[in-house]
Amino acid sequence: MVTIMKPENIIYARPEAFTAVSTHYCPGCTHGVAHRLIAEVLDEMQLTDKTIGVAPVGCSVFAYNYFNTDFVEAAHGRAPAMATGIKRVLHDRIVFTYQGDGDLASIGMAEIMHAAGRGENITVIFINNAIYGMTGGQMAPTTLPGQKTTSSPLGRDVELQGYPLRMSEMIAKMDGAGYVVRRSLHDPANIRKAKKAIRTAFETQLRGLGFSMVELLSTCPTNWGINPVDSLKWVEDHMVPVFPLGDYKVSSAVGDLRI
């Protein structure tokens, strides 16, 4: 019996901006989805050779392994400061930071607010999974009321520990911010919207229109203590009501770039 092999059609390939290495992220973590979106946008905009990424301490600490771009490592919370220096010296480069919520909204709070206030022409990809990931699942500035973590085993008590910080809403108030939005990675429709937002953020930087940030609601099944499928539903049911998706700052000049 002769088997006739039919030609195969490639429907997806690894972006050229990606390296061919295995990920260190936990199963079900959507850091990998965020990475893929960035790589796809860099390919489509032909920016790989002129991009410099900045990753601080956290789950993103090995991001430099995954991108075929120049990459540097910053101290915990200091990625915006390092990105500022790089961009001011190398004006023609695309400079972006890739930061988690503990990094950006806690130890790096001063760095991110002042970078936005100065209108630094950099792009920030902000991964919000409502918990400290790499360091053991402690309560983060974005942890939800009542959410259990290793440092709030009975759930976050707002009377003792305050309310979660909504960073997009805060940074949108800064005069130097040109584009600030919140998207999510919990289903295909929202992933497509996230990719469009990342592209608009890079376009904002290309045109010199000020500070841009894309906040992405992400999963952390390991530290949440639930399986990957349920974690996607948890984002939709619990995180989105606390962190509403939407555009928080789109300057008139940026609005002309929207896809």
What features would you highlight for this structure?
single chain, 259 residues, alpha/beta, Rossmann fold, seven-stranded mixed beta sheet, 10 helices, 7 strands
Can you describe this structure?
36% of the residues lie in helices and 16% in strands. By secondary structure, the protein is of the alpha/beta class. It has helices at residues 31-45, 79-89, 101-107, 109-118, 158-161, 167-171, 188-206, 221-224, 228-242, 252-255, and strands spanning 51-55, 70-73, 94-100, 123-128, 177-184, 211-217, 246-250. The chain has 10 helices and 7 strands. Strands 2-1-3-4-6-5-7 form a 7-stranded mixed beta sheet, with helices on both faces. It is globular and about 75 Å long. Helix 1 crosses helix 7 (188-206) and helix 3 (101-107) crosses helix 4. It has one domain (31-255): Thiamin diphosphate (ThDP)-binding fold, Pyr/PP domains (Rossmann fold), CATH 3.40.50. Helix 7 (188-206) links the parallel strand 5 and strand 6.
| Helix proportion range | 25-40%
Number of helices: 10
CATH superfamily: Thiamin diphosphate (ThDP)-binding fold, Pyr/PP domains
Net shape: globular
Note poorly predicted spans: none
Name the strands of the widest sheet in spatial order: 2-1-3-4-6-5-7
How many domains is the backbone divided into? 1
Broad CATH class = Alpha Beta
Main structural class: alpha/beta
- Tally of extended strands? 7
Distance between termini? 53 Å
* Mean of residue pLDDT values: 93
